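pipeline: protein-struct stage 2 | run 1193 | Transport protein
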Amino acid sequence: MKNFAERHVGALIAWIVVVLAAVLFMPDTSALVTKYGQTKIPSTAQSQIADTLHNKWGHGENNTRQVVVVFSNGNDKLTTTQKRSINSTIDKLRDHKDHYNIKSMLSAQDNAQARAQLISKDKTTELLQLNMSKSQGVRAQAAAVNKAAKTAGVKTYVTGSDILNDNFQKSTEDGLKKTEVIAAIFIFVVLVLVFRSPIVPLVSLGTVGVAMLASLSVVMNLVKYLGFPLSSFTQVFMVVVLFGVGTDYNILMYDQFKEELSGGLSAIDATRKARRIAGHTILFSGSSILIGFTALALAKFSIYQSAVGVAVGVAVLLAVLLTLNPFFMATMGKKMFWPTKNFDGGSRSKLWNFLSKNAVLRPILGILLVGLVSLPFLFTYNNNLNYDTLAELSDSLPAKKGFFVVQDHFSKGTAEPSTLYITDGNKKLDQEKYLKIIDRVTRKIQDKDGVKTVASATQPGGSKVSALYAKNQLKTVTKGSKQVNKGLGTINSGLLSAKNQIAASNMQSGLDGVTQLIAGTNKLIDGSNTLQSGTKSLASGATTLSSGANSLASGAQTVNSGTQTLASGASSLSSGASNLASGANTVNNGVGQINSQLAQSASSMSQLATAQTQIGELANQMNSVKSELAGASSLVSEAQQLQPAIEALSTYRSQIDGLMQELNGMGDLSTTVSSVKTSLTGVAGNDFKSEMANAQMISAAQSIIDDDTASAASKAAAEKIKAAATTSNTNLSSNLSTLQGVSQQFGSLSMPTADQIDAIKTIAAKMPSEEQLNSLQSEMAQLPSMLKDANALMDSASGLTAMSGKLGQLTSSISQLQAALKQLQAGTNSLASGATTLANGASSLTTGANTLAAGTGTLASGATTLASGTTTLANGATTLNNSVPALTSGLLQVNSGQKTMYTSLQGVVGQMQQLQSGLGSASDGLNTISKGVAQSNSYLMGLRQSAAADEFYIPTKTLHSSTFKPAIKQYMSSDKHTTRMTIVLGYNPSSAKAMTEVKAIQKEVQNELKGTDLDGATVAIGGQTATTADTHDIASEDFIRTAVIMLVGIGLALMFITRSILQPVYILGTLILAYFTSLSITRWVSGAFLGEKMLTWNTPFFAFVMLIALGVDYSIFLMMKYREFGDNGGRPSVNIVRASGVIGAVVISAAIILGGTFAALMPSGVLTLIQVALAVIIGLIILVLIIPILIPAAIHLTYDRSKLTDDDEDDENRN
């Protein structure tokens, strides 16, 4: 059990458990760095206020990050095909916005303003701006967008501040892995060289590894659960500090252990003594480091605070070294240094011994020599730092390449523009008065030399909208004022004309004219009553005439049908009678010839045969005539039936004669109607003229009323005139409306046309006269007797047949034949005479029947036309009769209005002189106004040319228009309490010039708002430049503050360790000198070999922390040895020289190991880590050289000013 305790086996078991727990509960360090490791600026900083406003912006932009997609064709213009491919890619991203967590996007396709901002002037590059949700990690988002944005034919990059920061973090993580491997190998090699044993390096690396693993787990759990400060540098510096310092402490411990073993002590005793002596030094030295890094917890800046994790690591390291090392030392003993056989005491440093001895001998010279060497570097030191994150990254990274492409083809600030926010929680800024202020601020910023473009709500495209400025609007106003002046001249001319017209007018004659109008209207009323009576009679007569014409048409048609039949029969009868007469004449001639022949030659019997034949033919013709006479008897019957129709024709003839008399009276009626229409037109014309005169009087009176220069009396008189004229106009308008209605009714009245009247007259002319109708009736009465005579004649002629039969007997008795022939000749003569008479009568009958048929046909057609015309006449007369009461009523209204007008005009006449005077005053006033307008226009023209006219003004209609709405949405928050301006600088966003410009802009904007309606509004600038500027201010301020705290803490620790006030001053002075000198040299080396002439903004702080915290170790090592020798007596100068010689070897070894450990940061490729490593290495070299000079010299000057003697040198060499 005793061996168990002496060999510290319990410590081994405990640390094994701790390591297992550390591994088991180790969080995901990369995720924690991503989540908590970003630079945190206090919420009161302007950039953070801006970020807060951005996160409350609305419009889908809350909690988003900005990403820029770059499409480039190098130095050649984008082709049409490439543009189509780019548009296709943009459309794909737009269609899958949710998949890629894109809240909003702005492309060159959106509008003209976006096109101007997102397409380079050389047409080689196009940008796509994305607002992406922060719900997903930036690394995963960037990878997804990179894949989706790949476009055939063009180079595509995805960049942005968050992506670049993530690349920096990844570069740091990758650099850390390299550093761990390189540091382990380097430490192993150095320890092998120092102790000439492979076991010591393994033990040292093992113990430091345990401390590193345990402390890292503690720090990461503190970050995860307690919000412990963290940055990308925390783990890196924990590695280099723990491995560097831990190895240094192990060297100190192992060197002391080796020394004790060389004195013959057992492993356990040597372990106990070595831990007591070296452990004392380690504890004091570690405490100073712990105090230095712990002091960083008081820093305000998150990056500085994150280094406090090193303090946790140092605390764990001290515990591991002082508890776990004893286990290996006590257990392994001398085997720990295998295969070394030499266990002589610790080695001495000849360099430190030489430097310290000469410093004590010539202290002033030593101090001056150090100062002389350091001064050039101190004087060339400057604090111009590089805040550009891009400098930290490799040029091969696509995001960095894309950023440079944007800077090359756009303004340098395009990729990371700044955003100025103006907010006032009590005011909505989308109002004209606030927009005017916003525009003034916009132009103020645009006027600054370092500003490339400024886009705002009033200038969404980054340039003025000329239509929204007073200068442009005054152009319209001055043009309008000229037109107004011209119009005033026209009005003035009108007033003068009205004045002259009133002066020239005879108002009394106007009243007389109104009296005449009243008298004329009364006559029209009387005429209207007469017209009503006449139209009533006309309507009644037209109705009767229409009925008669219809009956006449019907009867005429019946007569026409009968007469046509009669004419046909009479024609047949006439034809038969003519044939009969012809036959009778032929027979008579034949008989005469027979008689002649019989007388001449009785022997000519052949002629008898011929006569017999002719008699037979005559008999046949007589039979035909008899048949026709039988038909004629039926015609006589039909002719008798026509007698009533002929009597009706006689009646119709009488009616037509009466109708003709009515038509003759229509002329008078038409004249009356025409006279009434003419009167109505005259009355309407007079009313219209009166109404126009009243309108002129109203206009003139209104001009007087509107004239500010007119007297009150003139305005009162004008009011009365205007009221009277308005009342008169109202009555006249009503009367005119009534007259128009009556006139329209008269216009619809239709009288019989001339064609209708001519048709009636034609019918009357074609009607058979009374004499013709009487003659026709007489002839028709003789038809029966004529037919009777014709039948008797036929009966007489029938004996010819019998006579013909007896001709044969004539041969026997010529005498009898001759006698019979005489009788026959006498009968045929009578027959021929009767047939001729019959034929003539039938012919007359045919002619009369045809004439009657034609007349009755025309009569029937005319009667039908007459019936239609009289019906129309009756309807028109009825309509006219019905319209007359309205006419009479309208005329009464007109008469009433005229009387009212007469009364009104009587009042107007008395006021016209006052109106005339008022018109003159109005004319003078207009002249004055015209002059004033001309002067105003001249002033406005001058104002338009002045700077005062260059002022923003937006009409309300334009403000709420669809054209202006996109600008409001883009540059106003959803609640309209905040507006923003996008500012593109002409400088690198992370440059000192850009930071200075941003600060100046914020200050100028705040001053610009003073005394305006936005006085007191919050102004904040966001974006990479603003964040960098705030980082610069906070880092610079907190650096000084933190450095003071750290120096005070370490100074107090040194006072406790050295038990002196001056010695801590010497030590800290030496460290500060080494720090500034190393920074100046590092700057030169960086510029000469790395191409970076400036140090990154983190380098001075971390170099200071490392050099002060770690460099103080070497001073403590020296002072602890100095105290150890001082406890044994002797002169201070001798003790410090002896201590320097002894501890110098340890310090140089420790410096080599620590410097080598920091050198392992260089392959990381991260500029800050490289420069910090350079500064620490150079600082360690400087400390190794100046500590043995300055501190011994200071000790000698302070405590022992006497020179060293030979005995002192012997004492020194002996030890």
